């Protein structure tokens, strides 16, 4: 049976490059392309036996690591490899801390991406050359907030993302095609699960998942 691999990135050209790498790594793979967290959720629901997700950290519906944390909470048996334009060591470390099965820099050449996909499908954790030793010496700043975030349902996660974008209850209800009362119930549940009391605290909490652009890079610069 052909393996199902989901390519989640909002840049069409890079999705095409990843699909090419997938085709070289697993010639008979069934590849699904999505461009947002919402589309990713729909793809997994439609293909619950998927074998791998290649995940860009910065996509519509995600705030930094929030998409990865949510994925690991909702679909713990599905391997997720972060494919990121950021090559900061702390980003690599946090990706692994939050449950990624690998980290592929977008600058990696096609043969490297192909080999990484093959390794992860065989059950290995793949990191760029030399990264494992470097991140092993780093302090982990993964917080218990990630566990709380992972406990959200898909709809609650969507609502939290919209809150972080500053949308009002009425706007969220319209976009999700539900009543305002339903949105209020979701928000109450989100606050309870995250241990916050209001929108401001919820937005500040999810900002913990953002990527700090000032961290040291894989190259050591």
Overall structural domain count: 2
Largest sheet: 5 strands, parallel
The total of beta strands comes to 5
Topology as H/E string?
A: EHEHEHEHEHHHHHHH
Overall pLDDT level: 88
CATH class of the largest domain equals Alpha Beta
Structural class: alpha/beta
Instruction: Provide the CATH architecture of the largest domain.
Output: 3-Layer(aba) Sandwich
**Residue share in helices?**
40-55%
Q: Would you identify the regions where 5 or more consecutive residues have pLDDT less than 50?
A: none
Order of strands, widest sheet: 2-1-3-4-5
Shape: globular
Q: What's the alpha carbon Rg, rounded to whole Å? A: 18 Å
Report the span from N to C terminus: 44 Å
Protein described:
- This protein has 221 residues and is an alpha/beta fold.
- It has two domains: 133 residues, Rossmann fold (3-Layer(aba) Sandwich); 65 residues, Winged helix-like DNA-binding domain superfamily/Winged helix DNA-binding domain (Arc Repressor Mutant, subunit A, Orthogonal Bundle), CATH 1.10.10.
- Helices cover 49% and strands 10% of the residues.
- A five-stranded parallel beta sheet has the order 2-1-3-4-5, sandwiched between helices.
- The protein starts with a strand and ends in a 15-residue tail after the last helix.
- 38% of the residues are buried.
